[in-house]
Each structure stands twice: as C-alpha cells, then as structure tokens.
Amino acid sequence: MGFATDCIHAGQEPDPTTGAIITPIYQTSTYVQQGIGEHKGYEYGRTHNLTRRALEKNLAALEAGSDAYCFASGLAATQAVLSLVRQGERVVVSDNVYGGTWRLFTKILSRYGILFDFIDASDATAFEAQAGDFALLWIETPTNPLMKVCDIAALAAVARKRGAVFVVDNTFMSPFFQRPLELGADIVVHSTTKFLNGHSDSIGGVAVVKHAAHADWLRYVQNAAGAILSPFDAWLVLRGTKTLALRMPRHEENGRLIAQFLRDQKKIARVYWPGFTDHPGHAIQKRQASGFGALISFDLGSREAANRVLRKLRLCSLGESLGGIETLISHPATMTHAGYSQAERDALGIGDGLIRISVGCEDAADLIADLAQGLAAV
Ligand code: PLP
Predict the structure, then answer these.
(1) Would you name the residues annotated as active-site residues?
(2) Distance from the CA of 75 to the center of ligand 1, in angstroms?
(3) Which residues of the chain register pLDDT less than 70?
(4) Which of 20, 154, 260, 290 is deepest in the core (most CB within 10 A)?
C-alpha cells in the first residue's frame, strides 16, 4: 500500500463487534477471565490494550519497521530504548540533541553507570575518527535546534562495524519525509506529541524496531517498567496519523516560504534551514529525505532582541513544542535547551538570540505578515 493509505488504514480494521470504522478507545484496566488462565488473550491494561496496539501497528507500517511500542512520552520511549544498554557501556550521541534527551542521558542515566559522549555527527568521517568504540549511537537529524544534517546511511555503517545499536530520533522529519530504518538504523524513536499527532493535544512516544530481539525487549520493558501510552492518547495519535500525508506537504511549503522570508531580513544574522542550497547538509538531506521539514531557527543576536520580537507576535504562538498544525515559536536557550549550562550552549552555538519556529498549516501570507510586524520591533 502507499504511504497515505497506510496512514489511514494500517493497523486498523472495522471493530468486530459493531463494525465501527474507527478503532474504539478501550478504556479498561483489566479483562474478565472465564477460569484460571482462561481468557481471550487480554489480561491487564498495562500489558494489552487494543487502541494502543492499533497505533503501534500503524506506526510500524509508516516507519517500515517490524513492530512498534508506544510510551507515555517521547522521553519515556527514549528511556525504554536506553535500557538496551548496560552499566559500563558507552553511548555516543550527536551534539545539540533535544535538551530533554541530553538531560535524561547526562543527569539520570549516567547515574546508572552508562557513559555518554556528545560528538558532532554531521561529518561521518570526522565522527568515526573521534567516536571510538560504543554500544549505542543516538542521533537526531536535522539536529535540534541548529539543523545540522547527519548522514544516516554512513553513520549506520560506523555503528555496524562496532556491532552497536543505531537509534534515530525522527521526530523533526516524521516518516513522511524520512524513514531511517530503510537507511540502516535499527530503531526509530518519535515524540508522537509532535508531527505524528499533529494537533498539540497529546503527549506520547514510540520506539519502532526492525529486529525481533529489540521487539522482545521493548515489549518486556513496556510492561515491566510500565510507562505506557494511555488508550485515549493512543486514539488521538491514531486520529492524527490519518492526516499526516496531508499535513506534512503543507507544513513544508509554508516552511519554505518562511525560511526565504527570514533570510531576506537584514536584521537576522543567520537562518538555519536545510532547504537552502548553501546549507552544509543540503545534499545529504536531499538524498536521504524527501523534504526539508518545517523547523527553522534564526538568530536575532541577543536575548533582548529575541524577546522584543516574541512579545509582539500574535499568530505565531510562543510555546514549548513543535509539529502542531498551529505555528509555534520557541526560545531554545530558556525552553528546550534550558537544561544545558550557558557555557555548554555557547560551545554548541545556541545563542540567547536564537529562535526556533515550527511552521504550521495556516495561510503563509498571514504568518509572514505576523513575523514582519514582530520583526519591526527590532
Ligand atoms: N525528541 C525531540 C526531537 C523532541 O523535540 C522532544 C520534545 O520536544 C522529545 C524527543 C521528547 O518528547 P516528549 O516531550 O514527548 O517527551
């Protein structure tokens, strides 16, 4: 089936009892058993839930995986995947990942004796020379918030040589634009909170796997650690993915117009968007993805200038998150990357004047008019 068909149908059949075309919300904590060990394959809500399972099958199809496991948030999915690593093993992470991922790795999982190193992975050859041995490689591409592009196939080869697990957080692109498992990744993680749900009304996460051993372990962890996605959130995301193939081209088209508008503004020192032909990762992005996405960062030089513009915007809402149908704008230094110290942010190039915009599906002319009146404040 084609991608749009899978978005609408994969994992879902009409309800066997009523014929309802939409998968019901199985809002139950347990299932009645007829006798000891006599049940219909469903025992307890943490272990089995058909709404969640429908979403998992849907997302496995969209990412070309063998299976998928949904969790209570993107970070809960991240934590579950990291349970593949044992004490004393080393995890290498592309630099400037989502600040919450960095915080989970450096402030919590490091306490369990897992070793983390953050390395620029945008040049795969330089990365390999620096990376040493590792048990797991974790990347985002494009990275958050500086939009560095990492070559998924080349990094998969580096991980394979070491027998390491290769994980790609594909939240920014969604499977509509980029399917890392087809390029050699072993596991794809998403914050379903973002483009997959697309309507800013649910928090969730998923790990999509390729190998049976990873599926077995994540199914076990999902039940044994218990950070499951709720039936209602699963239903919301299932509803969201039905329109993914309609929303993403619109996000991208608006993104392209806004990136160009921002680049034409003399007040803006730099615009980060992989769609520009002179972006260092442009050729790789074109090769490994079918689009450039709707995330754009731009630098206004100082926190004061950024705040003046952010306070003036009316249509572009200031808030943490991305991937909703509404345009959201954020200030990485005090929001997504607030967990980093000032020195760490400076080293990465995440300045106090940096703004990240997640372009929504409104009329582009209205968004541009709003940005223009906001930028008039500096
Ligand atoms: N990965 C990326 C790229 C993100 O931007 C985020 C959240 O912003 C997460 C993971 C974490 O997802 P959640 O907020 O659903 O825990």
Answers:
(1) 46, 98, 169, 194
(2) 6
(3) none
(4) 154
Q: Is 88 left (phi over 0), alpha (psi -120 to 50) or beta?
A: left
Specify the DSSP element, H or E, that contains 58: helix 50-62
Query: Residue 231: its pLDDT value, please?
Result: 98
Determine the distance separating the centroid of ligand 1 and the alpha carbon of 14, expressed in angstroms: 32
In ligand 1, the atom with minimum distance to the C-alpha of 78 is 10
Q: Which fold has domain 3-241?
A: Aspartate Aminotransferase; domain 2 (3.40.640)
Partnered with residue 228 across adjacent β-strands are 71
What integer pLDDT is reported at residue 96 of this predicted model? 84
The letter for the amino acid at 223 is N
Residues touching ligand 1 (Cβ under 6 Å) are: 73-75, 98, 100-101, 140, 144, 169, 171-172, 191, 193, 203, 205
As a CATH number, domain 245-375 is 3.90.1150.10
CA 199 to ligand 1 centroid distance, Å = 15
Contact criterion met (CB below 8 Å) for 54 and 23: yes
Report residue 189 as tokens: 């993680």
Distance, CA of 166 to chain centre: 15
User: For the CA atoms of 280, 74, 204, 199, what is the dihedral angle to 10 degrees?
Assistant: -20
Amino acid at site 341:
S
Q: Which atom of ligand 1 is nearest to the CA of 204?
A: 15
Per-residue pLDDT at 199: 98
Question: Which two three-digit tokens encode residue 230?
Answer: 């709720």
Q: What pLDDT does residue 56 have?
A: 99
User: How many angstroms separate the CA atoms of 76 and 74, rounded?
Assistant: 5
Residue extents of the structural domains in the chain: 3-241, 245-375
